[in-house]
User: What shape does this take?
Amino acid sequence: MKNKRPRSRGFRPQKPKVYKVSEAEELLPFLLKVVGKSRNSVKSILARGQVSINGRVSTQFNDKLKPGQEVTIRTDMVTEAAPLQGITIMYEDDAIIVIEKASGLLSIASDNEKTNTAYRQLSDYVKAQHSDNKIFVVHRLDRDTSGVMVFARSEKIKQRMQESWKTTKERAYVALVEGDVSKSEGTITSWLKETSTHKMYSSKFENDGQKAVTHYQVLQGNKDFTLMEISLETGRKNQIRVHMQDIGHPIAGDKKYGAQDRTIKRLCLHARKLNFEHPVNGMPLRFVSDIPKLFTSKSR
Assistant: This one.
């Protein structure tokens, strides 16, 4: 028979308190009403990861609440930050965090999605370590582009990295494109413009728009698909996607820019390599992520 653990007299674990949201408002004013404590006390509860919205831990005082949601406050223990979804941390120190982002995850918030973003998840992650911690976006990847991303841990580091971003030694992508690309390598140069519906295109006239330069090298391919490595001289919006359409080989899964195949359900563009100097100590850093298996299997 197992020994029973003696129960401490006078102690009863407190049950989590659950509150129903009846009207749209931000999390902090809602907590101030239901908790009845000072603003600083409520912020401390948030920072310790003791508040969750519909089961998801939140440390953000400006979270938008909707009627019908449930806000849970745990007072008996400190909960951990929610596990990262669609994010793998490749490297972190006091200055930067380098991640691999999954396809389908926004880099930052949009009008339609405020919470499920790489920025938001990493913000929660660092605030769970200390409530004063912050992160800053150095660059972005399109929602459906996967691969290596860098975040700074201070405004100063972000500015320093953005100022040197154009001279980053290596920014390489891999793309699975439709069709058999005949040239083993090449360079595409055009001037990009944007329509009123936010779609980018190459102007027919030189110097009419933002100059964009893309280099590519074929890695393998067949009659249906080609896998290529792509490097950028410039970092314009949707640059690679437009340039692949321009040469008649749109990125697989990219319906917006001309893809015809309907069997592939993701944009087949992956930020694979990033090589830069550490913003504090100047040490060279190089990050390489694996080529997605879908890309290699379709291009054999």
The first strand starts at residue 17 and ends at 20. Residues 1-13 have pLDDT under 50 and may be disordered. Residues 118-129 form the longest helix (12 residues). Residues 168-298 form a domain with the Pseudouridine synthase fold (CATH 3.30.2350.10).
